[in-house]
Every structure is written in structure tokens, then in C-alpha cells.
């Protein structure tokens, strides 16, 4: 199944004591590139990465998780009692020394840095399992989205390939008539130069030389071969990443099309070579987005 490398998913999940919001965005990249932003997950982040990499082989994956703890047992609240007692004692001593009352509320005391600590407890095994399952469901959404976009890209690619095949078939037909055309053209040129005594055998040799010099058969056959390989890779039943292979084949198609165009002597062939090159350029741009 052809997949693109771009996608976006956002989902919310609520468990017994935890609510999690998950954002995943995927972009083009030569390799698998993991970027995590959000609440600290410790070792669980590595598990999320591994789970993601099983389903997404290539592309930049940007992930953000927001955790909202619904249970009071998920938090730890502690007061630095020695510090609190020292503050109160010092304030009382100062009050006696300056003979002025000092009015301190508990709210004011709680604002003192390092007096109160509120920490999140470590995630339980159940919490980790819940987050991992929620994350995998969100990754599935991304994969489905990438597959839908991949099918659309494949449809466009098949259109480009069909037009290339049509132009290549026309080039073959024109090229098959070239020996007779070259022979007629060469005979006329020699006649104009008063070389009427040139034998038919010698004329055929000159035509064969020119045909060998401007022979397009090898480039045409290689283009056909690369087109066949390309079509095989974008079949719906192919169930593996093909982006890198398609990119390589697109480069090879471009190389052969350039060679074909440089060797062509017929204006009709040159025009069709330009059409093929335009189609290949569109293909190269589209395969850059495939996994």
C-alpha cells in the first residue's frame, strides 16, 4: 500500500483516573525522525517511539501529549514543616523586637518559595498501558490518512505514466521510419553536391552509420524497463514502503529522457521527449512525498 509522508491527527481519551490529549503530525523526511514535545513520560516515551516506528517507517513524526490527572491520588502535596516553623519563629521574634504586630495569613506563607511542593506521582502500570493504547489508536489514524493520500498520489502517477507510454510509443513509430527518411535525405543532399555516382550499397552504409550514431533503441528500451518497474511498485497489492525506490526510478527515467532528447534528430521525437520530461518532473515531485 503506497503511503504519503504527511498527516495530522488529534484525539482525546479519558480513562479511570487520567485524560490524555494526543497530537501527531508527520512530514517528509529521508528517514524516521522522532520529535516529542509535551508532559514528561520517562521511559514510556521510548515505548511510544517503538510503537510508532512499527507502523511508520519513514518521515518526521512530531508528537505532543497533554496529561490531565483526574484522581487526587495522582498528586503528592507536601509542606516543608521545618522551614515553616523557622519562618513563623523568626517573624514572632522580629515582632517582639520592633514592638509591632505582624499579621501573616496561611495563604501568604504558602507563597513562600520551596515551602510547598506539589508533585505528580509516577505513572502506574495501568496509566502507561492506557496512554500506549491511546497513542497506537492515534497512530492508526495517521496511517489511514497517509494511505488515503497515497492512493490519490498513485492515481496521479498512473496518469503521468500513461502519458509517458503514449509519447514513447509515438517516438518508436517515428524512429522506425527514420532509415528510409535518412536515406532519402542523404541521397538528395549528395545529388545536390553532384555525387550521382554513389552506389546504392555505399548509400546504405552511410545511412547505417548515421542510424548507429543517432540510434535511440537503447534509450527507448531502458525507458520501457524503468516504466515497467515503476508500475510494479505502485500496484495496490504492494505492502511495503516504496518511496525511495520510486525516487531512484524517477531519476533514472529523467536521465534516459535527457539522453533520448539529446540524440534525437527528428522534430516530432524532440517534441515528445519534452512532453516525457515534463511528466517525469511531475513524478519526481510527487514521489518525494511517499513513504
Question: What are the salient characteristics of this protein?
Answer:
alpha+beta; single chain; Ribosomal Protein S5, domain 2; two-stranded antiparallel sheet; rod-shaped; 9 helices; 291 residues; 4-stranded mixed beta sheet
Can you tell me about this structure?
The protein has 291 residues and is of the alpha+beta class. It has helices spanning 44-55, 81-98, 106-110, 125-176, 178-192, 200-213, 217-233, 243-263, 267-287; strands spanning 7-14, 18-27, 32-38, 59-69, 75-79, 116-120. The longest helix has 52 residues, at 125-176. The chain is rod-shaped, with a radius of gyration of 36 Å.
Q: What separation lies between the terminal Cα atoms?
A: 10 Å
Q: What count of helical segments does DSSP give?
A: 9
Succession of helices and strands: EEEHEEHHEHHHHHH
Main sheet specs: 4 strands, mixed
Average residue-wise pLDDT: 85
Proportion of helical residues: 55-70%
Strand order of the largest sheet: 1-2-4-3
Helix and strand arrangement:
Layout: E1 7-14, E2 18-27, E3 32-38, H1 44-55, E4 59-69, E5 75-79, H2 81-98, H3 106-110, E6 116-120, H4 125-176, H5 178-192, H6 200-213, H7 217-233, H8 243-263, H9 267-287
Parallel strand pairs: 3-4
Antiparallel strand pairs: 1-2, 2-4, 5-6
Helix pairs in contact: 1-4, 4-7, 4-9, 5-6, 7-8, 8-9
Amino acid at each position: 500500500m503506497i503511503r504519503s509522508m504527511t498527516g495530522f491527527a488529534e484525539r482525546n481519551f479519558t480513562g479511570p483516573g487520567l485524560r490524555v490529549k494526543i497530537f501527531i503530525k508527520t512530514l517528509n523526511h529521508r528517514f524516521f525522525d522522532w520529535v516529542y514535545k509535551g508532559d514528561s513520560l520517562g521511559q514510556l516515551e521510548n515505548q511510544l517511539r517503538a510503537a510508532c516506528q512499527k507502523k511508520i517507517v519513514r518521515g518526521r513524526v512530531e508528537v505532543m501529549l497533554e496529561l490531565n490527572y483526574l484522581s487526587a491520588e495522582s498528586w503528592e502535596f507536601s509542606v516543608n514543616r521545618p522551614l515553616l516553623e523557622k519562618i513563623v519563629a523568626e517573624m514572632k521574634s522580629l515582632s517582639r523586637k520592633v514592638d509591632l504586630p505582624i499579621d501573616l495569613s496561611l495563604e501568604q506563607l504558602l507563597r513562600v518559595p520551596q515551602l510547598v511542593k506539589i508533585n505528580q506521582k509516577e505513572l502506574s502500570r495501568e496509566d502507561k498501558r492506557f496512554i500506549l493504547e491511546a497513542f497506537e489508536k492515534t497512530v492508526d489514524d495517521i496511517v489511514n490518512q497517509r494511505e488515503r493520500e497515497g492512493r490519490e498520489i498513485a492515481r496521479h502517477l498512473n496518469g503521468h505514466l500513461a502519458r509517458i507510454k503514449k509519447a514513447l510509443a509515438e517516438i518508436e513509430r517515428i524512429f522506425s521510419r527514420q532509415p528510409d527518411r535518412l536515406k532519402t535525405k542523404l541521397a538528395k543532399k549528395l545529388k545536390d553536391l553532384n555525387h550521382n555516382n554513389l552506389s546504392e550499397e555505399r548509400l546504405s552504409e552511410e545511412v547505417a552509420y548515421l542510424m548507429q550514431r543517432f540510434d535511440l533503441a537503447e534509450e527507448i528500451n531502458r525507458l520501457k524497463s524503468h516504466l515497467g518497474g515503476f508500475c510494479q511498485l505502485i500496484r495496490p497489492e504492494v505492502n511495503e514502503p516504496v518511496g525511495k525506490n520510486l525516487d531512484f526510478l524517477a531519476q533514472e527515467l529523467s536521465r534516459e529522457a535527457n539522453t533520448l532528447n539529446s540524440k534525437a534528430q527528428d522534430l516530432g521525437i524532440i517534441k515528445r521527449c519534452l512532453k516525457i520530461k515534463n511528466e517525469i518532473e511531475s513524478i519526481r515531485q510527487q514521489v518525494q512525498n511517499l513513504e
